Amino acid sequence: MNFANLFNNYGEAVAMILFGIGFSNLLLQKNLIKKIIGLNIMDTAMYLFLALKGYVAGRKAPIVTNGVQSVEAYINPIPSGLVLTGIVVSVSVSALMLALTIRLYRRYHTLDLDEISTRLKKEGL
Amino acid sequence: MAFVQNLPFISIILSLFSGPLSSILGGKKAKWVNAGVITVIGGMSALVLSYVVSTGEEYVYRMGHFPAPWGNEIRVGVLEAVMALFFCIIMLLCILGGIRERENEIEDTKQNLYYIMVDLLLCSLLALIYTNDLFTAYVFVEINTISACGLIMIRQNGRTLEAATRYMIMSLLGSGLLMLGICFLYDLTGHLLMSNIKEQVALLRTSGGYHIPLLVSVVLMSVGLAIKSALFPFHSWLPDAYGYSTVSSAAILSSLVSKGYIFLLVKIFYRVIGFDMVRDSKVINVLFVFGIVGMIMGSVSAIRESSIRRMIAYSSVAQIGYIYMGFGLGTTEGMVASLYHVISHAATKALLFVAASGLTDTAADSTDFKDLTGAGYRNKLAGVAFTVGALSMVGIPMFSGFISKLLFAQASVGVDSMKRMLPTLIALAISTILNAVYFMKTVIRLYTPVRRVKRDGIVFTQVKMKENRAKSFALVCFIALNLFLGLFSEPIVMLIRNGLEMFA
User: Fold this and answer.
1) DSSP 3-state assignment of B504?
2) DSSP summary character for residue B268
3) A117 contacts in chain B (CB < 8 Å)
4) How does pLDDT run across B326-357, given as a tens digit for each residue?
5) CA of A100 to nearest chain B CA: how many angstroms apart?
6) If contacts are CB pairs under 8 Å, which of residues 186-205 in chain B contact chain A?
7) Looking at beta carbons, which residues of chain A come within 8 Å of B139?
8) Opening angle at CA B475, ends B361 and B487, nearest 5
9) Cβ–Cβ gap A93/B166 under 8 Å
10) For the segment B243-259, what is each residue's pLDDT rounded down to a tens digit?
11) Complex ipTM
12) Does B179 sit within 8 Å of A113, measured CB to CB?
């Protein structure tokens, strides 16, 4: 195995590690708030990955300044656009999850999803 | 450019804007706007379908007339138009079938919010069907998830809140993986439009470069969409979400939301990666195995349930298993069978949910089987409708479920290797027997006469057809749709086959 690429592209490697951390937190944590934090880490890791893919070393953000219109001067703007769209999606999803968490907390006074499930079974609704 | 070509775009925009419009209307008006919008979009989809069938070729609609690698595109072929039309019909019937339940179970001030969710759901489903751009598909997948979550939690009790939370968590895991897969693919090919990606993937295949990243991206997208459509090991959220939400929501969720994701997966297989590549990648083998396990395990869980709603919900797990098994066969015939089953299951499962709510009306909304003994006599139409749905699920000729089982069996015989044919046929046989066990058990219970009029304080009442005209109308239409799919399946199978040819 050649690990040199892993070190050269350390940014992507970090993004994937962060994605794994976020994913496993969202899946495995019992606490709802920690789950939401996991969700945000996962999404942010993806933005890091996308931003790295759009970046070209030594070039600038794609905003025309001083009349320079050459393509060579700027980075690829599409991943940045994707990141922005992704942030909008992730904000709305986090807001929805937090709203659900508040509802559940007001009703059951706990953030533990498994605990809520056992209480629901006892209620027998 | 013919005017008809604009209609897919207009239908997406119409449903998108009717959502905000509903937010300023009262509950009653929002209901009419919603029903009107779905009907109009259904009509437009029918026009689009007839146009695409008459010209015999797909067309691409460029948003804002920006040329290919930059602009966003809508692509319309026969399959897309068929799906849009069916989704509209089924959604309208689901909405009609649960009017009274919604009025009782949702707070008066929140009635119009329900229709916002339905409008947005329809919009996202249409966009998922028509779009030719992967990232747009991702955004609408998220809109779909959020509005589906709203549909679950609008009936406010502890169960639905918990179900909505679990649904969101599983869905977010799925969309995270889908997004990562799309990012990988964008990174490898530099495009987001499906047709452009496909060209680049074909080039990569011939040159043999980036084999593993391509494989990883296919796996990520398949697993992500499989989680979202509740393939067997990821179905834990499903019974609660379908079992406790209001009846229209349960019907829409089981028959449309999961099908939207499945259709997107088909699109990714055919239009983005290319089905040959998917077949060689062995991803479908995994889907095949989990599909077969899901067919059996879903039915086993359904047998053990004591609530009719949760039983129908678990039956969905089994049916989703059928669809993925069809993908796993790796042939066009298998895909045709799966897509037919998407339509047939959508029609049947919505029928079952609405009929079950008609039956539980007779026992003060108790979903326990013990309270439903003899319910078929107390609400005659719902009893007949449930029986039709049950027979269709088991696969009795004349009903739609029979045709999909037949197509699956034919497709499995057409597969070269015995390794796939035998498990498919055996699983089909076992699953049919298990289906028969729990559905016929229910039907027999529905038609077992009882003398007593109450049990544990629940009073059994007679429900007549006239009392709830909307639900009766929906049930009659569902029965007719089911018989239509069962008796005149040939043209629909032809349409699906044409559509798949246009896909490739």
Assistant:
1) coil
2) I
3) 162
4) 998 888 899 999 999 999 999 999 999 999 99
5) 7
6) 186-187, 192
7) 85, 89
8) 145
9) no
10) 888 899 999 999 999 99
11) 0.94
12) no
pLDDT for residue B320 is more than 90: yes
Of B161, B183, B187, the CB nearest to A103: B161
Q: Which residues of B touch A41 (CB under 8 A)?
A: none
* Rg of chain A over all Cα atoms, to the nearest angstrom: 21
Write b or e for each residue in B393-413: b if 16 or more Cβ atoms lie within 10 A of its Cβ, otherwise e. bbbeeebbbbbbbebbbebbe
Return the closest-CA partner of residue B470 out of B93, B86, B90: B93
Q: Using the beta-carbon criterion (under 8 Å), do B145 and A93 form an inter-chain contact?
A: yes
Nearest C-alpha in A relative to B168: A97
Find the domain containing A25 and state its range: 4-123
Q: Give residue-wise pLDDT tens across range B52-78.
A: 999 988 889 888 888 878 888 899 999
The per-residue pLDDT of chain B, averaged, comes to: 90
Helices B194-207 and B158-189: crossing angle in degrees, nearest 10, is: 60
Give me the number of domains chain A comprises. 1
Locate B78 and state its tokens.
């026969």
Find tokens 């139409």 and name the residue: B381
Two tokens at A59?
């070039």
- SS3 string of B419-469? HHHHHHHHHHHHHHHHHHHHHHHHHHHHCCCCCCCEECCEECCCCCHHHHH
In angstroms, the CA B174 to CA B229 distance is 9
* In contact, B1 and B65? CB cutoff 8 Å: no
pLDDT of the residue at B45: 94
- Which CATH number covers residue A77? 1.10.287.3510
Residue type present at position B207: S
CB B181 within 8 A of CB B220: yes
| Cβ–Cβ under 8 Å, residues B164 and B242 | no
B283: pLDDT confidence band, cut at 50, 70 and 90?
confident
**Closest Cα of chain A to B310: distance in Å?**
13
Angle between helices B332-360 and B400-414 (to 10 degrees): 160
Largest Cα separation within chain B, whole Å, is 75
Tokens, residue B412: 């499995």
Q: Give the best residue of A1, A55, A76, A96 to mutate against chain B (max B CB count within 10 A).
A: A96
Interchain contact B113–A (C-beta under 8 A): no
Count of CB atoms within 10 A of residue B332's CB?
Answer: 17
